[in-house]
Amino acid sequence: MSNNFPQGEEIINVQMTVKEALALTGAKFNQNHKLETDAIKKLKQTLEDKLLAPNH
Q: With contact defined as beta carbons under 8 Å apart, do 24 and 36 qualify?
């Protein structure tokens, strides 16, 4: 990824369940395949909100 993000060192907070976080690390939940996609959506939305915020 490029280093051209001025706020690239800022910290973001993403609220997700422990299961969602585990799914992002590659853990498989055979009973719930939606966990990983939901976690990715939350992460992407948080990044979009941060990067597209009007004060940046």
A: yes
Place of tokens 């996609």: 37
Distance CA 22, CA 39 (A): 9
pLDDT band at 36 (very low <50, low <70, confident <90, very high): very high
Q: What is the DSSP string of 1-56?
A: --S--TTTTS-------HHHHHHHTT---TT-THHHHHHHHHHHHHHHHHHT-TT-
Query: What pTM value is reported for the model?
Result: 0.75
Q: Which residues contact 25 (CB under 8 A, 6 or more apart)?
A: none
